[in-house]
Amino acid sequence: MSASVVGRAVSRVEGVAKVTGAARYAADTEVTGVTHAVLVKSTIARGRVTGIDTAKATAAPGVLGVFTHQNMPRLTVPGPQTMFLKGFLPVQDGEIRYSGQPVAIVVAGTLEQARYAATLVKPAYDAETPQVSLAANMDLAYLPEPHPMSGPPVYTRGDVAAGLESADVKVAAEYSTPLQHHNAMEPTAMVAAWDGDRLTVHASTQGVGDLQRSLMAAFGLPGESVRVVCPYLGGGFGGKALSWPEPILVAAVARQVRRPVKLVLTRADSYTASGHRAETRHSLQVGATRDGRLTAIDHTLTQQVSRTDELMFNNPGQTRVIYACPNVRTTQRAVRLDLPIANFTRSPEASGGHALESALDELAYALNMDPVELRLRNWSATNQETGHPHGSNHLRECYRRGAQRFGWARRDPRPGSMRDRDGLIGWGMATAAHASGGVPGAGADLVIKEDGTARIRSATQDVGTGTYTVMTQIGADVLGLPLRGVEFALGDSAFPRSVVAAASTTVPSVGEAVVRAATQGRDRLIALAVADSKSPLHGLDPKRVAARDGHLFDTERPSRRIAHREVMRRHGKPIEVVVSPAAFTPRRFSVGAYFAEVHVDPGIGRIRLRRVVGVFDPGRVINPKTARSQVIGGAIWCVGIALTEHTLVDPYLGRVLTPNLSGYLLPVNADVPDIEVDFIDRPDPSSPALGARGFGEVPSTGLTAAIGNAVYHATGVRVRDLPITPEKVIKS
Amino acid sequence: MDDFAYTRPDRPQVAVALAARPGARFVAGGTDLLNLMKDGAEHHDHLIDINALPLSGLRKVEGRIEIGALSRMSDVAAHPAVREGLPVLSQALLAGASPQVRNMASMGGNLLQRTRCWYFRDAAMPCNKRSPGSGCPAIKGQNRRHAIVGGSEHCIAVHPSDLAVALTALGATVHTLSPRGARSIPMAGFYLSPGNTPHQETVLGQGELITRIDVPVTPLARGSRYVKLRERATFEFALVSVAALVRTQGGVVREAGLAFGGIAPRPWRPAAVEEALVGRPLDAAAIKAAGAALVRDAVPREHNAFKVALVQRALAEALGEFGGSR
């Protein structure tokens, strides 16, 4: 008997296609007669376009059309239910809401022609002074309207004032995180082609279904007329999770020039086109008893929103959910600025979690208590926001195992107490946590072919996280087929409706649908086998029959078996199953513990991360290899957030100053030490996906605080404003 | 990017004759120039590709190493004579860019790379260097990476080359060729201060080609080192940097060459820093005095004041290698 394919460290099923170049990303799409679009973007951040001179551009070689708000077809702004959250479509009116807003689109026969002609488009502006600084405009903060994607503007349980009053020890501090960008390796690309009134768009999107619906809304088309295709993504991190205007604009101009049109955003475009992590400020007050039991947490977030939306993607969920604390208030305030819309950025809970986990470290010092012990004392078996038990929660074991692997017991807690020849050593830790339940809306279909192999389809996406692989594993496990006997297809809006690949929801949502589809398919296969008089399983109670290694077998006499292939050959036609989306999926949290070692030379402010240990509880691990990759990627995100990444905006002109990978400092390999990863790997009994919960966002929370806490331990300097750059730690 | 003509001559005399016309520009590795042209920060209608010119390679002669201007950064950095005799040069080259860029970028082109000032690099912004008279938004804007010394009210952009800092400390000489003939320019006189003409960065005239860089090989240079401070471990321009050449005898500094990067519009080698050290024991007081001399005339701005302290720390770090205590 072979072990299940679930839980095995399987390499990516699409890996060979990717490394050989066979995988076709959106920009690789070959469409006959394709033409090329280039965006002309506003150079002011606020005001109006008073006129656009397009004469030279229109006359330039190869130009097929120059589109401005004056000649662009009128389009319907899609509603937020299609994940179009920007609130307006550019190139529809002359108003400028941020610098970098598209004001014209040039279409030409070649990319070079389009790029050149775009430089000839000359907009004239009536510019107003923009407001782009959060710090300078904190007095404009307000409570936005509640929105399901934002989390509650104000959440309260218990009596926070009384809880703080009763505390023996209190910590109050403010933490800030800067504007940051996703910087997916693959720039967003799209190719739009019309066939009469039928539109096909190949696009880099984390939500083929949402983008399809936003195109339907923009053009007033029925679903069967719009198809969105995205088989591969070179990363997204939330930047491709919304429905953005560009595919709509490109489809609109393709219709005008009567040719397919391709647009590949430049790296610079991506700093204004695809959202960002908003600049945030977190003000925290935390109270505890002398023995370290939390009595109150008051957590106020203030973040930037745009002129045309007020969605909050830095919801302090961990503060409400994780720790046992009777009195908690979280408040989310917004400041409208003349910047592009912010959106989720791996992970949306990174900034709130950073603030909470930094404050708990400060509390641990105030209590003179080990920070692991403080967290153990406040562990909760229930989700503190809902009051319901977690499906499972092995966070305490994450702390213990992580501490052991790291050697935490050898830590001298006094700041500046640990050093080597070259400088100071700091050890810090923090909890990682992120919502990881499913969301309703994922369906799938299944075909068991006459050769006994199966194909499962769902209009989900693989952002690079491993969806192809883990869904193949889940399908193969339930169907009792080897991996190669199952093909999982995704990234096509013509497949059964699914959900956006974001927020750690894919495994519990799509995985649930795959489990149901595969279970129904297997049951029908078993029904055929027990009904067939020539089958060795004939007449058996179907409950006695199981599937494994490409065979159905009698669980009481396993040698009595028949191959899937044989059952299907005799059946003579495929088995087809369609499952509609589940109406309910449980809300869950996945958790973990990070431990970090930094080395600091306080003379010159040099901070180097030396060691990271992360232990996680994502329920059952479907694939240790892709899960480990998620941790490594998430940890590297945290290294950037903690130490190097920040998008700079000019305070007067409102332009992004770092729209490239030279100015925007992502960590390089030399900044990333060995990352030791471990999983508790115990199934969540409440999981609808073979014991697994969502996980992708979890490892991109917590480590920022562990690094900041380690820097404090090394130096005695508490840097509350990210990133922790040299000037913040050099001793005076 | 605008259309441009492209010529690939194989003789230096032809190259400089072609380049004498305004609008012409030499290209070697192209690692900076092509970005500038694509981003609209520079416009040239004729690129003269000099890669076919016989200007590559290193030559050791009495008292100096002659480096052909087309030698690639990676080749120079790895050359045994450079690693042994001019460690500061090898270290500065390896501290710059990435292996891919170093394999392409030429020595001459490195000296002529343009500032990383984000206002200069964005053609939609005012910038006195790119568009004389349009203003300098960095003075009141985001100036964390900008100059604390040597700037003017017209420009506080920083010269980005690590190589130029090392060559300045080493007292190298740049050899050039133009239609008017050949000449040699000491590094100390190669770059211009911005004043009210920040668009003029060097003394080179139109069509003047760097052919060779001569670096003196001296006992002072043998123990030299380069210290570069930055946020990430590699592939980043300096916040501050120091090229340090120090010769001590009996604990007393006999000779010093100290140049600084990341703090000024040109490689910065103030005589006062070396004067503060020479003839004194390399102790904390001398290092402190040298640091104070370095930043005496600093004009810090809103976001770059930290460089005043950081560059002194970098100096102390560099001198620590020569027995100084920081």
UniProtKB/TrEMBL annotation, chain A:
Gene3D superfamilies, A to Z: Aldehyde oxidase/xanthine dehydrogenase, a/b hammerhead (3.90.1170.50), Aldehyde oxidase/xanthine dehydrogenase, molybdopterin binding domain (3.30.365.10)
This protein's name: Carbon monoxide dehydrogenase
Alphabetical list of SMART domains matching this protein: Ald_Xan_dh_C
Keywords for this protein: Molybdenum, Oxidoreductase
Molecular-function GO term, any one: oxidoreductase activity
Database matches in Pfam families: Ald_Xan_dh_C, MoCoBD_1, MoCoBD_2
The keyword Oxidoreductase appears for this protein: yes
UniProtKB/TrEMBL annotation, chain B:
InterPro entries cross-referenced by the UniProt entry: CO_DH_flav_C, CO_DH_flav_C_dom_sf, Diverse_Substr_Oxidored, FAD-bd_PCMH, FAD-bd_PCMH-like_sf, FAD-bd_PCMH_sub1, FAD-bd_PCMH_sub2, Mopterin_DH_FAD-bd
Domain named FAD-binding PCMH-type: residues: 1-220
GO molecular function, one term: FAD binding
One Pfam short name: CO_deh_flav_C
Superkingdom in the source lineage: Bacteria
Coiled coil, from the record: none
Keywords: Oxidoreductase
PANTHER family from the UniProt entry: OXIDOREDUCTASE (PTHR42659:SF1), XANTHINE DEHYDROGENASE SUBUNIT C-RELATED (PTHR42659)
Name listed for the protein in its UniProt record: FAD-binding molybdopterin dehydrogenase
Source species of the chain: Spongiactinospora gelatinilytica
Upper lineage: Bacteria, Bacillati, Actinomycetota, Actinomycetes, Streptosporangiales
